[in-house]
From TrEMBL:
A Pfam family: Peripla_BP_3
Stated name of the protein: Transcriptional regulator LacI/GalR-like sensor domain-containing protein
Keyword DNA-binding: yes
Highest taxon above the source species: Bacteria
Domain Transcriptional regulator LacI/GalR-like sensor: from-to ranges: 108-267
Listed PANTHER family: LACI-RELATED TRANSCRIPTIONAL REPRESSOR, TRANSCRIPTIONAL REGULATORY PROTEIN
Keywords of this entry: DNA-binding, Transcription, Transcription regulation
A molecular function (GO) term: transcription cis-regulatory region binding
InterPro entries the UniProt entry points to: LacI/GalR-like_sensor, Peripla_BP_I
Span of the signal peptide: none
Length: 272
């Protein structure tokens, strides 16, 4: 039995991850037990302790930033474990993921090439979510490099409803913002809906971007420009790493998988 502790199950990317991970483990006769802490650090610790008490053979955690109690517990019992999803500032061993900061830099570079100067971001809480931290840092770093004005950052839930709330907080029309960067595709879908409901022409008046490239992204109107995160590949790689560790191969070297900017119809040249 392999345990995985997720930040939430209320996002299609984690469903995809669990689906592919489960298939990979099943080929070796391993079962998967998935639990979610909903971005609560204390809940994450309790869930990990529960999995350990159930004598799982190995553990998978999302991200590399965890409470010291978790780190001490896993070190004490010697349980095979993998950190996945983020390769930003990852340790040399045992971390598989992608570079969130570098991915967001691609987004800002794209918007800069389209002539955008006043941008804003809809993101998530950063104190308990290192992926959100690195995505925000990527936007800040690239905006500064291009001398773009990052007018406002809205911190909201990583959901469609959160995207709508973030859009209203930023108020792109009133603040003369021409591009809105979202930390997830779900947030982008909410922002896109709010913009259309307000009569904003997309992308003529406002460009919107997402992150993840979930299935819905290509079906939105307009179709969403986003970062394609290698979720299925990450799940398979993580599963194979866990299998290798259980077969005595040791801790794998950390690995950063490539992301890709997918340009669709939700971004266009900045209005004159």
């Amino acid at each position: 039995m392999v345990g995985v502790v997720l930040p939430t199950i209320n996002n299609p990317v984690y469903a995809t991850f669990v689906h592919e991970l489960q298939k990979t483990l099943a080929r070796q006769g391993l079962h998967l037990l998935a639990l979610a802490h909903e971005y609560d650090r204390e809940s994450e610790i309790r869930l990990i302790e529960r999995l350990v008490s159930r004598s799982v053979d190995a553990l998978i955690m999302i991200g590399t930033d965890h409470d010291d109690r978790t780190t001490s517990l896993l070190k004490k019992i010697g349980m095979p474990h993998i950190h996945c999803w983020s390769s930003d500032k990852a340790p040399r061993q045992g971390a598989l993921g992608f570079n969130n900061q570098a991915a967001m830099i691609k987004v800002v570079d794209h918007l800069a090439d389209l002539g955008h100067k006043r941008i804003a971001m809809i993101g998530g809480e950063t104190w308990n979510n290192e992926r959100a931290q690195w995505r925000l840092r990527g936007v800040q770093k690239a905006a500064a490099a291009h001398k773009m004005d990052l007018v406002k950052v809205a911190t909201v839930p990583l959901t469609i409803a959160g995207g709508q709330i973030g859009y209203d907080q930023i108020d792109p029309v009133r603040n003369k913002i021409t591009a809105l960067i979202c930390g997830t595709d779900l947030q982008a879908a909410g922002a896109l809906h709010a913009a259309r409901a307000g009569g904003v022409a997309l992308p003529d008046q406002l460009s919107i971007t997402g992150f993840d490239d979930i299935e819905m992204a290509a079906l939105l109107s307009p179709a969403l420009t986003t970062i394609r995160a290698p979720i299925a590949e990450l799940a398979v790689t993580t599963g194979n790493a866990i299998i290798g560790m259980l077969q005595g191969e040791g801790i794998p070297k950390s690995l950063s998988l490539p992301t890709e900017l997918i340009v669709r119809q939700s971004t266009g040249r900045a209005p004159v």
